[in-house]
Design brief:
231 residues, alpha/beta, Arc Repressor Mutant, subunit A, 2 domains, four-stranded antiparallel beta sheet, 12 strands, binds calcium ion
Length: 231
């Protein structure tokens, strides 16, 4: 499931730039362009994973909107504002904002702050995976075991296998490259070969697929990587 971000910004070029770059990073972005629309969608804003809020907006200021959001939600709020003085930052934080970026800002810095502010949402999503059911096989993410509900036999998996399955589940229906898998599951400082991943997939197919030669769940995407799907 993607991390959901609302961007409330009245400057079209900035709004589009922010949206495009967040989407490139894999976030699901909804944009609003004025204060009144934002006030009318408070419950949507409150249930997002992050709200990026411009301070100077038509109809209602970002500060007012943040104050209204805070009445019912603890969603992280990142202020963007041309008024970059310390007093303005303090005012923004007093209204319940979590972070403040003065305009113009460095894109890289904005993406890093977004990354930090959405970390709790990312962790919460990870923790929601307790099991994965594929056909009559059930993987328990806490015990690393796969139970065959037809035969009642169970098999243990290694931590890496479970991490990789969790990564597939987090990226369900998306094509993931071998490099992405290596970065996310093995970490940047470890260098297993792509062949390692292929062997893991062979094992998953043997374990979960009814017909490993004609996989339903673990698809190879030629010269790119893999796509996991439960449909
Ligand atoms: Ca503005």
């Amino acid at each position: 499931m993607a991390i959901r971000i609302y961007v409330v910004e009245d400057e079209p070029s900035l709004r589009e730039m922010v949206q495009m770059n967040l989407e490139l990073d894999g976030y699901e972005v909804t944009c609003l362009s004025d204060g009144l629309t934002a006030m009318n969608q408070l419950s949507e804003l409150g249930t997002a994973d992050l709200v990026i809020l411009d301070v100077m907006l038509p109809n209602h200021s970002g500060l007012e909107i943040c104050e209204a959001i805070r009445k019912s939600s603890a969603v992280p709020v990142l202020f963007l504002s041309a008024k970059g003085t310390t007093t303005d930052k303090i005012e923004g934080l007093k209204k319940g904002g979590n972070d403040y970026l003065g305009k113009p800002f460095d894109l890289e810095e904005m993406l890093l702050r977004v990354r930090v502010l959405t970390e709790p949402a990312r962790l919460a999503q990870k923790q929601t995976f307790h099991e994965l059911i594929l056909g009559h096989k059930v993987l328990n993410f806490e015990t690393y075991t796969v139970l065959d509900t037809a035969t009642h036999e169970s098999e243990s998996l290694s931590k890496k296998e479970v991490d990789l399955l969790r990564f597939f589940l987090e990226n369900e229906d998306k094509v993931v490259s071998r490099d992405e898998i290596l970065d996310n599951v093995w970490g940047k400082d470890v260098f297993p070969t792509s062949r390692t991943i292929d062997n893991f997939i062979l094992h998953f197919r043997k374990l979960f697929e009814e017909d490993p030669k004609n996989p339903k769940y673990f698809h190879s995407i030629r010269s790119v990587g893999y796509r996991f799907t439960r449909n």
